[in-house]
Amino acid sequence: MDMIVGGPGAFIGGVYRIAACLDGEIELVCGAFSSDARQSLEMGAKLGLSADRIYGSYKEMIEHEHETGEMDFVVIVTPNHVHYEPAILALLAGFDVILDKPMCHSLEQARHLSRTVDETGRTLCLTHAYTGYPMVKQPRQMILRFDIGLVRKVYVEYQQGWLSHDNVNSKQTQWRLDPKQSGPSGCLGDIGVHAFNLAEYVTGLQITHVCTDLRSVIDGRQLDDDVSVLLRFNNGASGVLMASQV
C-alpha cells in the first residue's frame, strides 16, 4: 500500500494507517506524506519506511512505483482539491485506488474518473467507511429480510459541533472552509455524504430526488455548516437527512 499525504498536521491519515493494519493483510511500503519534501521524509522515517520510497510529491511517487511494480494500490487522503488528479494518475499507472470522499470537485471530474476506471479496468473505492461497522450491517440485514416490513420513512443524522465558533483556527478548519480547497460544499460534502450513503446502504434503496437547504450559520463563511435535506427513495419512501457542524 502507498499513501498520499496523511502526514504532519493531518488527522485521517493516521486513522487509515491503523485501520489498514488491523487484519495484518496490508503493509504500508511507500508514501508522499506532504507537499513539503522535508516533512514527507520525516514522516516516512517515523513510519519506518525506506528513504528511497519516501517521496516529495505524489507525481514522483506514482511514476517511480509504476516502474518498480512493487506497490499494489494507492490510498489518497488529501484535502478535497487534491483528490482528482492523483486518482487519475494512479489509475492510468495501473494502480487500484482508495480515495477519500468526496470523489472530486465537479460532476465533470467524477464522470472522467468513472470513464478512466472503465478504460483501465482498475478499482476505485470511496471511503464511506461506516458501512463496515457491525451495528450498521445488522439493521441492513434486518431490513433486507423484511424483519421490520416495508421501509416507508427514513431519518438519518450526522451531527458535529466543532465549527460552532467563528474563531476556530486549525489546519483542518482552514481548508474545509475554503471553497478552492474544499469544493462547492462544506458540511454536506464533509459529513452529509456519509449520512446519504448510510441511508441508501442500510435500507438497500436508492435516493432518486432531493430538496436541500444549505445554511452558513456563522457569519462570513462561504460554505455551508448546517444542512437539511428532504429525500425521496426509489420505492416511494420519503426521508429527512440532517447534518451539522455547528
UniProtKB/TrEMBL annotation:
Which Gene Ontology MF annotations are present? Answer: nucleotide binding
Q: Where is the Gfo/Idh/MocA-like oxidoreductase N-terminal domain?
A: 4-126
Q: Where is the GFO/IDH/MocA-like oxidoreductase domain?
A: 139-245
Family, per the entry?
A: Belongs to the Gfo/Idh/MocA family.
> In its UniProt entry, what is this protein called?
Gfo/Idh/MocA family oxidoreductase
